[in-house]
Amino acid sequence: MTEEMLQSPEEQLRRFVETVGGGIVESTFYAKTTSGPSKLYNVRGSTPDPYPQKPTKVTGWKSLLLSQGIGAPCYASAPLPAPGKGKSHPGFDVGGHMTTAADGSVATGGSCYLVPLCSWHNGRYNTAQFTMRSTTMLVLSGYMQADTSATFLARLGGLAEHAVVYVSDDGPAYEYLAESPLEADHAPLLHGCKSEGLPAHHVVFRREEFEGRMVYRIAHAATG
Ligand SMILES: [Zn+2]
After folding, report:
1. To which H or E segment does residue 17 belong?
2. pLDDT for 93-106, tens place per residue?
3. 45, 58, 104, 159: most buried by Cβ count inside 10 Å?
4. Ligand 1 centroid distance, CA of 77 (Å)
């Protein structure tokens, strides 16, 4: 995951679209729980917050935790780095995706957990089961591997018929839209963008019903 931490927002969006494969993605939901699991593993293939451009403005997993009153320090209380190693601990560097599965997987349609982690613990996904210092955390439903915070939040609860996820001048962003930006008479002026229209890197979602569930289909993607 250390390597992925250096991914740009553009690379993260491209990876998301590759993972979806042009298909359907579940709508999402998140909730705060006070009784999450106390033993968890890092999710393999999760997408941490992108390398910061203007961190105060970007959408990120860390911001999502903070918005729900969940903050520092790092949740992993064991195992701890050896003396002199892992100096990032016990900082809160990223929102870390955790699962109860020892192989680091999240079942399609399953849930994972989002907790504050230092970058040292976030990079240790192939070794250890972590003990959590608290069971207050966020449960993410509909999360998929390679989900970015923007692609996750844009699919929240089937709220919007159309949504666009894009890389703005400030970093990753998303917006709900009443009409499809592909068919609208006027090109939308998206927040964080200086000019009208879809930015160079974007994914347009369209909500639909599929086998009785609310899902999103990628209506259009430009990921360069
Ligand atoms: Zn830590």
Report:
1. helix 9-20
2. 989 999 999 999 88
3. 58
4. 7
